[in-house]
Amino acid sequence: MQSGYAAILCVLAVLGLEAAAPGECELTRLLQDKLQYEMRLQYMKHYFPINYKVQVQYEEVLRPSNITRLRNRTVSEAALRYLWFHVSSQAVLRIHEVLPEKHPSWKYTQELCQLFDALGKEYSKYRQTDVETVVADLVKLVQSDGVESRRKAVRPKALLDNCLKVMQMLYRVPCEW
């Protein structure tokens, strides 16, 4: 009888570990929930001064048109997701860095950063050699904080709008939202 309980506990422990480590699709689903229009509007527009802009690198603004252009150059979907992750996580981090801890949007951006950190663990399994050169170069530009990079002033809401639009383009079919 006790061995039966032990087997059930083992199964529950394994299921608990699986639930504690959500995969890429589950994390993007959670991100989509966090990036709902009402939340982006409230936390990234209403809680910021009028016309407030964050200084980001030119490469940190990833729009759907950029993805379409890269797709036309036959860049793989996996490489595009890798690029989206790096650009979006860096953009969220830039927004989070300018906020004082008592700002109403601080906790929201902290939660987004945590989701991107968890997604980063999923992408750490991805081999760097599988990434096309054009994407690898863009990721290096985003990760470097060099002087040679051009800067651009962008509204925080616009950064998250782009993040969501590109995510929906890249994850629509495999994750079946």
Automatic annotation (TrEMBL):
One of its GO terms (molecular function) is macrophage colony-stimulating factor receptor binding. One of its GO terms (biological process) is positive regulation of monocyte differentiation. InterPro entries: IL-34, IL-34_sf. Keywords: Signal. One of its GO terms (cellular component) is extracellular space. Pfam families: IL34. Residues 1-25 form the signal peptide. This is IL34 protein. It comes from Sula dactylatra (Masked booby). The lineage of its organism: Eukaryota, Metazoa, Chordata, Craniata, Vertebrata. The gene is Il34.
